Amino acid sequence: MSISTTHSHLKAVPENYKSPPGIDKLSAYINIENLSLSYGKQTVFEPLSLPIYQNHINALIGPSGCGKSSLLNTIVRLTDYQNNANVKGQIHVNSENVLDDSTDLISLRQNIGMIFQKPMPFPMSIRKNFELPLKEHGVKNKDELEYKIEAALKDVGLWDEVSNRLHQSATQLSGGQQQRLCIARILALQPKALLMDEPCSALDPIATKVIEELILNLKGKYTILIVTHNLSQAKRVADYVAFMWYHQGHGKLIEHNYADVIFNNPSNPITTAYVQGLTE
Amino acid sequence: MIRLPTNHSFPDRLLKLFSWFCGLLLLFFFIYLFLDIARQGLSQITFNFLTTDPMNAGRAGGIAPMLVSTLLLLTLCLLVSLPIGIASAIYLAEYTDETQWFARIIQTNLNVLASVPSIVMGLFGYAFFVVALGLGFSILAGALTLACMVLPLLIRNIEDSLRNIPDEYRINATALGLSRYRTIFQILLPMAARGILLAVILSIGRAMAETAALLYTSGYVSRMPESILDSGRSLSVHIFDLSMNVPGGEQNAYASAFTLIVLLLMINITTLSLSRKIQKGAFSEH
Question: What is the ipTM of this complex?
Answer without folding.
Answer: 0.86
